[in-house]
Write a structure and sequence with these properties.
The chain contains six helices and seven strands; from the N terminus they run H-E-H-E-H-E-E-H-E-H-H-E-E. It has 208 residues and is of the alpha/beta class. The chain is globular and about 45 Å long.
């Protein structure tokens, strides 16, 4: 395992969607978690690396399946909250602060790499995808907001109106078809899910 970096980098907005009391948000997150859980089961591995783990809800979910889980995020406040939640859940998850760009791909890979709600934040998503393809051995499970639906829903609830519905920190925007095309540069897309309002893919590294 490589040394853990302590890089502090802006991570966009932070919203505890998993803990929301809004019934619509709770319904959307239930759909997201159902799709996520079924794709994790299809990968059928015992070890996972989650990049961009945020408050660690997905990492906890996977740890509860009996998987060995490592999770990182670039935001110190997210990792602080993640540690609180992991301890409260009694889960076994290794957590640290790190950017995707700083991974040692020879040492830090995993049979399943999870990267949900990260690629839309990267200044160089092609480089990010390349790193993911070197870390995933062989599976990648990734998701991004589905556009233009995401921005339309933001505008419908009068959020980020001056930004035309774009969530702060989102610098890349993909339709479902566009995201599949993007990821297919380096992976075979095995299964596609569309929990509202995301695109979620289970992919296998092409040379695996």
């Amino acid at each position: 395992m490589t040394a853990r970096n302590t890089v502090v980098q802006p991570a966009g907005n932070y919203f505890d969607k998993y803990g929301s009391r809004n019934p619509v948000v709770r319904w959307m997150m239930s759909g997201f978690l159902d799709a996520f859980s079924s794709l994790v089961d299809r990968a059928d591995v015992s070890e996972v690396l989650e990049i961009g783990c945020g408050e660690a809800e997905l990492s906890i979910h996977m740890a509860n399946k009996g998987m060995k889980v490592r999770g990182c995020d670039i935001a110190p406040e997210a990792i602080d909250e993640a540690r609180v939640r992991v301890e409260a859940a009694g889960a076994d998850v290794e957590l640290w602060i790190q950017r995707l760009e700083d991974f040692d791909v020879q040492a830090d890979g995993a049979p399943l790499v999870v990267c949900c709600e990260v690629l839309e934040h990267l200044d160089d998503p092609e480089q990010g995808l390349k790193i993911l393809s070197e870390l995933a051995d062989p599976w990648l499970l990734c998701s991004v907001p589905r556009e233009p639906l995401w921005r339309t829903l933001n505008l419908a609830r009068a959020r980020y109106v001056k930004e035309l519905g774009n969530t702060p920190g989102h610098v890349n925007h993909w339709s479902k078809r566009g995201f599949v095309r993007f990821v297919s540069q380096r992976f075979d897309v095995v299964e596609t899910r569309s929990p509202l309002p995301w695109t979620m893919l289970l992919c296998r590294r092409r040379d695996a």
